[in-house]
Fold this protein.
Amino acid sequence: MSSLQQPPLYREPFRPQYHYSAPQAWLNDPNGLVYYEGEYHLFYQYHPDSTTWGPMHWGHAVSPDLLHWETLPIALYPDDLGTIFSGCVVVDAQNTSGLVPGGGLVAVYSYHTQTQGVAYSTDRGRTWTKYSENPIMPAVARDFRDPKVFWHAETGRWVMIIAAGPEIHLYTSANLLDWEPASVFTGGYRGGVWEVPDLVAMELNGETHWVLIVGVSQDAPSGGSGTRYFVGSFDGQTFTDRYPDETLWFDYGPDNYAGTTFFNAPGGRHVLIGWMNNWIYANEVPTSTWRGVMTVPHDLSLAETPDGIRLVHRPAAELETLREPLGTWQDVKLEGDWRPGDVTGRVLEIVAEIEPGTAETLGFKVHAGEDGDARIFYDVAKEQLFVSRPGAGVSNFNRLFDMHVPLQDGRIALHILLDEASLEIFTADGLSSFTAQIFLDPAQDGLELFAYEGTARIVNLAIYRLESVWPQAAE
Ligand code: FRU
């Protein structure tokens, strides 16, 4: 194919229009999420030489609004100690490390050998210097990686949370360089190793609770890798799980992994971005010159529920700035298949509230066309939401997923985000989120709602097209 026939960058088939993906080549975990001097930084696991996983670098992008990202040069290259695995970045405003006079950014990351290293930047993350005494920590386990560091004001110490096989280890430090073991947390799960932990202090009704978020590399409920969370307390040394008899899942879809929150997000927000993929097929998904994409930013908070304190997810409000309204509908009878006027599209936001009435199932067909569709359907009697997606020429891809979504005031209310190759669902109460890649024929853009075996009623429906965040390439 001559270059004239190639689609412009960020307009290729399956290219996400409002999710971050690298201009080309392989990407996995988000790393070093930090807000600093007016910019959100997104570093990420990056293999610049191929569209499959390989020797890891840290790719880098910055954004003023979590949506419009500018890709910058690679931040961290492999060195004599190894390739650069996942890790974090903190703002060392007081120069506790002695590495950033006047304040700057300090990255704490793993080498592939499972030792830990430090790098620093005094020019707003544009250039990075590796610490001369690396590694700062030896590998204490065969799998010992993905440090996440935060400042614990009460004890005046930095705290590191790091995965060690199927355990989480905590360390403390005064200077980001010398780390003392503090405690070990085991959550009673034996499926594979744990990866990419995060520990986040969140307020609820004037009290602080700590949420531990952790990637489980195998046997998650949607198959393969998935994300768990724990709610508890933390005293600067030890995390204590408040619900040790329960297993809480962060997202019920197959494709939200290795998520981590921003250090220093403005307004005390807790914003998480995940890698929208799953290790069981990540190296095979059918994109062309790039492979790997991030989830939308999730705004996290806590809620008190009859079952206890739970995480609440909202798509970051910034997404609303991309909306182009296509229509609203109220009080529409739903019986069989129904099309919302002449609305079609692959890059859409759908906000819907439906009363099931007598219907046994109801839902949405998206990216619909001759080759089928991805389907979101609600089993009213079971109060269970199912999502089916067709195969994508990829092993383990074609599956039926489900998540429990109780009716609220006799209604089901969903917030659905569709991009060229993904489907993200947030429930109205925010207690469940569902993230899945979907690869339907790029020409298919049909959208239908349906109610079967009875009649339902659309109470409210709003549909928006979401504007691309990528500049139109010059013709
Ligand atoms: C998680 C992970 C991390 C590791 C990185 C390597 O997806 O396996 O544990 O640091 O990816 O790219």
Summary: Residues 28-29, 45, 56, 85-86, 110, 145-146, 195-196, 215, 258 surround beta-D-fructofuranose (CB under 6 Å). The longest strand covers residues 446-466. The radius of gyration is 22 Å. The mean pLDDT is 96.
